[in-house]
Write a structure and sequence with these properties.
Blueprint lengths: L6 H14 L6 H12 L6 H10 L6 H13 L3 E4 L7 E4 L6 E5 L5 E4 L2 H9 L12 E5 L2 H12 L1
Parallel strand pairs: 3-5
Antiparallel strand pairs: 1-2, 3-4
This protein binds zinc ion (2 copies).
């Protein structure tokens, strides 16, 4: 489904996007993109800032936020708002997956669900073309389930 197969594809799409928007291709914007591509999974704006600091790039939170907004618009990045967790981001080209969120400890797990992916790929909607979907499953992780059980038996 995604054409974002490698790092070059992200860079190219971002360049094209900035061209169309008549925005400058600043080194800062591409340093942020490189950092994002290094994350295997989800990240928060804080984690992104830390990762940039390690490369001695000082970018204000406002710039980070604005750049992430641009990348979301360019369909390079997706934003997740999970209940009870700070806002998370991830690369748009990650393989499709579902998110399991524990409502007790906030632990987040990604799972690949082939049946669900096949179902969604085959699903047709009236007067609507689907680009992508995000599935959030809220529940209780095993660790929390054990703790809760112990509390009950006390
Ligand atoms: Zn838990
Ligand atoms: Zn994810």
């Amino acid at each position: 489904m995604s054409d974002l197969l490698n790092r070059d594809a992200y860079v190219k799409r971002f360049e094209q996007f900035l061209d169309v928007k008549k925005m400058r291709k600043t080194p800062e914007r591409f340093a942020i993109l490189r950092c994002i591509l290094a994350f295997q999974s989800h990240f928060t704006i804080e984690q992104l800032a830390q990762s940039l600091e390690l490369q001695t790039y000082h970018v204000s939170r406002a710039t980070l936020y604005n750049t992430l907004q641009l990348m979301i618009e360019a369909r390079l990045v997706r934003r997740h708002v999970f209940e009870g967790l700070p806002v998370q981001y991830e690369k748009a080209g990650n393989t499709p997956h579902s998110h399991l969120i524990c409502t007790h400890c906030g632990k987040l797990k990604e799972v690949r669900d082939n049946d669900f992916i096949a179902f969604m790929n085959a699903r047709k909607f009236t007067a609507f073309t689907a680009d992508f979907y995000m599935l959030y499953v809220y529940g209780t992780c095993n660790t929390c389930a054990r703790k809760l059980k112990k509390q009950k038996t006390k």
